């Protein structure tokens, strides 16, 4: 009996530690990463904290102990975070001729440096476009490649950097582009491009974003030591501070746009971060609206990372959302949404 009592006290102590850490992580979307670079890293492990607290809740519940209230109340307080992490049901409304199909995809330079053993990545991506037939295509980590078939798109806007190697972003559209531009980020090769696209009488603005990378390989099997762990931690802290500036520039820019807006692309941060909260604002997260499962968008082997997003104006219905996590032709997965614009904006 005494040993069981000691064990219960130890488990409850661990429960309290994880509860405090989780509660701190809850506050991080409201705290600027520049002010708390150490704490901001916790946003990456919040899903793990949620799962651990759920296990604590079950442990105490099965014993009918009141200690279950600690994690139980914490999970209730974080119900909105749970919805960003996992969706139990999806939305798939009937297709209509007025729907717009949008794809966002970080293509990792179409495997230019042969990170993947596949030698037919451009061909596979071309086939995907032919199969899915998106009306609007936003590409991050883009590099011109004549083997990628984008002939289905009549209009495009492309922004490239570099001398010998050209890289950047591109927006392709089957509908007319009447205006385009860029949001430049200081001291960074990353940026946002946008296009004003006209379909029938509707005009919408589409932003394609690529925020600062944390520069961590998708191969988490690499041996970790103290030196490498410190290097990774410093990279994350620095990147999150840069992303804070970048997210604020994006929000300031789109706040002055009166067209229905779509913001998509590679945010390089979690849905539990200050950066996510800043960019999303009052917009809708397409995964939360119509997705299912984890919405995994980055190819970590043992962690369902969601760092790519499609945000839409409240006047736009998300009728379907899919993360094509079977399509391994990059370190990211294509994000696909079927949308309906409810408001009409005349040119």
Tell me what you see in this structure:
It is a single chain. Strands 3-4-2-1-12-11 form a 6-stranded mixed beta sheet. Strands 5-6-7-8-10-9 form a 6-stranded mixed beta sheet. The longest helix has 29 residues, at 226-254. The N and C termini lie far apart (77 Å). It folds into 2 domains: 2-85, no CATH class; 100-341, Endonuclease/exonuclease/phosphatase (Deoxyribonuclease I, Chain A), CATH 3.60.10. Helix 6 links the parallel strand 1 (100-106) and strand 2 (136-142). It has helices at 2-27, 37-40, 46-62, 68-77, 79-85, 121-132, 226-254, 274-280, 286-290; strands spanning 100-106, 136-142, 155-161, 167-173, 176-184, 191-199, 202-210, 261-266, 284-285, 308-312, 316-323, 335-341. With 347 residues, it is an alpha+beta fold. Helix 1 (2-27) packs antiparallel against helix 3 (46-62) and helix 7 runs parallel beside helix 8 (274-280).
